[in-house]
Amino acid sequence: MTHRGPDEDIDETTTEVSPPKEWAAGMPGVLTSLRRGLEQMGPGRTLHTLRLVNQRDGFDCPGCAWPEPGDGRHTAEFCENGAKAVAEEATRRRVTREFFASHSVADLASRTDYWLGQQGRLTEPMVLREGADHYEPIGWDEAFAMVAEELAAQPDPDSAVFYTSGRTSNEAAFLYQLLVRGLGTNNLPDCSNMCHESSGSALTETIGVGKGSVSLDDIHQADLVLVVGQNPGTNHPRMLSALERAKAGGARIVAVNPLPEAGLLRFRNPQNLRGVLGRGVGLADEFCQIRIGGDLALFRALGHLLVERERAEPGSVVDRDFVADHTEGYEEYAAHVRDLDWPAVLAATGLPREQIERVAELLATSRRTVACWAMGLTQHRQSVATIRELVNLMLLRGMIGRPGAGLCPVRGHSNVQGDRTMGIWEKPPAAFLDALEREFGLPMPRSPGLDTVEAIRAMREGRIGVFVALGGNFAAAAPDTEVTARALRSCALTVQVSTKLNRSHVVTGRRALILPTLGRTERDVRNGVDQFVTVEDSMSCVHASRGRLAPASAHLRSEVAIVCGLARAVLGPDHPVPWESLAEDYDLVRDRIGRVVPGCEDYNDKVRRPDGFVLPHPPRGSRSFPTASGRARFTTNQLDVLRVPPGRLLLQTLRSHDQYNTTIYGLDDRYRGVRGGRRVVLVHPDDCAALGVADGQLVDLVGEWRTGDELVERRAPGFRVVPYPTAAGCAAAYYPETNALVPLDSVAEVSGTPASKSVVIRLEPVSAGEV
Q: What is the three-class DSSP state of 392?
């Protein structure tokens, strides 16, 4: 294992590569979890902290949003990457005023994202004054006054942008959107805009609810599970336990992905003896190694095969009662998919027709099917159409509102879904704004705000003066790195509410503030009373989270307290919302949530239940669909295959096993055989030969983006070529290093999500003199 201390940075020349693994977890996962805990927290703190992760009396993991089981919750209800996330937050390392005095902003900007994150927890508010080259301490009241002063200097409320990370609690998110709308704008972009907005857009259009329709028990009970565009072994490792349980019940699993991912090949569950000492469980019955962006063609072909089988054997495939009683548009859909261009499908997918037919047979004969997907589907130009096409397959088989069946978009950040439920959305429904007006007696802005890409464009054009981020690492997470950096630097003031140092603290406006906040793991005491917060998981379950550790610094404030302090400074002490009271007692916040947010009635009582409560989901609960017609919608979607010019590859950005989103825990991608570095590009051996690049050769990745008749290039320098069994014609490399190649204007139709999974690149060898 390659891991360096806080004083060491990445030396890419020491990167080692070995063959990829064919299984995930097992004893290496256990040992890595313990090692990272001991490095960051020490032995006693490690044992005390890890036993509280995802427990009823503990805190929600700050990593992914995978749900906890209602029954049989394990003592160690966390995964390797969850343990890494907890260790990073509960670390004993500290970033103090002395640290900032020793490191200029220019020095910090020269460091890698990994180095920045390894420095530890922020301890007090810091300010970068105009013209200064170092951050210096600032008091909370002065910091809040600075934000209020700069907002007051703007020509109108829409000249400010308020970003939100998916780790923000429900209480803080609700108050944050209330502050922003009280100011008079809906400029509330969030990380959903960059990852799962395509899912929400497609699901809202087709089933009337922008969330998945399954519970964890549905996965356990399924006959067939599709896992598409997703790597659960790294990004949602506890999902592997659910797949293992489904497999034990007889389920078949189909994995669709350009890369063979170890977790979907074989799982060695570290929570049982067979997983630690034995061979574990083989998961994927079919591995469909699809070309990047070929999923729409695959789903179209599967629909064609199912419809043709229904024509030949009426009543054998289509759930006719469900289709007749609950849907619209089936006849148009069926007519559309009957005319299929098989050569185009096979070229787009790279799959043999025989395998597509085998998957169709599984779909036709399964009584309970769950379809899971993640960002491999959501970050393409045709992402919304692709997910609509997947919904078509599930509708014709009646797989919504049936036990053991449904749609499962697997979210990333631990509360990204909850933030949207609480109103973090640039295009809020009118009914939600009406409810806010009734509750608080304030007029709410009705014009749509800016999403993430639109916000960057507005900053770039000089239309935004203030940028505020409640969590996250916007500068690293956003596409088109240099454009985003210039956009942020054009602001008069940038504000980051953070737990740890990151790239966004060194890519700043003319003035910048760092406001340090408590983490999930830490006690939050207000007026001598322990407070708790709530979160919503991927499957719409809302539950409590209670930090137990002493705060990293006496100067830290909770997200709730920071938002309320900002609101008092910005909106004034006479504002009708009782910000000071809400900051002192989170039950008062939850009372307001209960009266505003649909499905959250009696919120305080419900979240005190041992496992919280599940928000209503009409398609799942009663097969009722809150669309305009009251029916689920079949859709017809045009297949537009991305043509890659000769000598080019189609690149997808992805995470290593040692990171979560932009947080880099370490330098190993154990399952893919990469150790000690991150600037690698995974390329099929046949493509290496065709392009004339050798194993280990250094190349620049040059992105090619055509806008009209103009070809615009972007460059990410110094990547090591790694021959790898990815789909032919495709390549993969880690973000945020490759976000520089994602054009700001290359986005999914309808949702506006950056198309980070379909970037046309060429490999340009680096000459010896440039190394």
A: helix
Q: Where are the alpha helices (DSSP H) in 63-196?
A: 80-89, 97-102, 105-109, 113-118, 140-152, 170-183
Determine the Cα–Cα distance for residues 696 and 654; give it in Å rounded to an integer: 20
- Which residue reads 């005190």 in tokens? 608
Does the pTM surpass 0.70? The reply is yes
The span from the CA of 269 to the CA of 79, in Å, is: 10
Tokens of 347: 């070229």
Q: List Cβ neighbours of 151 (8 Å cut-off, separation of 6 or more).
A: 157, 160, 183, 466, 570
Rounding to the nearest 10 degrees, give the CA dihedral for residues 267, 269, 275, 279: 0
**Ordered mean pLDDT values, 10 residues apiece, the chain (771 residues):** 68 93 85 85 87 86 84 78 88 97 98 96 98 98 98 98 94 98 98 95 98 96 97 89 95 98 90 75 96 98 98 95 98 96 96 98 98 96 98 98 97 87 97 98 97 98 98 96 98 98 98 97 94 95 95 97 98 96 98 98 96 96 97 96 93 94 93 96 98 97 92 96 98 97 97 97 82 49
In this structure, what token pair is assigned to residue 130?
């105009």
3-class secondary-structure state, position 533: strand
Angle among Cα 358, 359, 363 to the nearest 5 degrees reads: 120
User: Could you tell me the two tokens for 413?
Assistant: 């950040």
Domain shared by 393 and 419, yes or no: no
| Residues 320 and 326: beta-carbon distance below 8 Å | no
Residues 422 and 344 reside in one and the same domain: no
Residues of the domain holding 655? 649-770
**Whether residue 579 is found in the same domain as residue 430:** yes
How many independent structural domains does the chain possess? 4
- Report CA-CA distances (Å) from 679 to 13, 700, 719, 737, 754: 10, 10, 5, 7, 21
Taking the C-alpha atoms of residue 575 and residue 211, their distance in angstroms, rounded to an integer, is 35
Alpha helices, DSSP H, located in 313-382: 320-326, 330-338, 342-349, 353-365, 375-378
Final residue of a structural domain among 376, 409, 442: 409
**What CATH number is given to the structural domain containing 207?**
3.40.228.10
**Residue 541 sits in the same domain as residue 590:** yes
**Is residue 253 domain-shared with residue 357, that is, in the same domain?**
yes
Indicate if 302 and 445 belong to the same structural domain: no
| One-letter amino acid of 514 | I
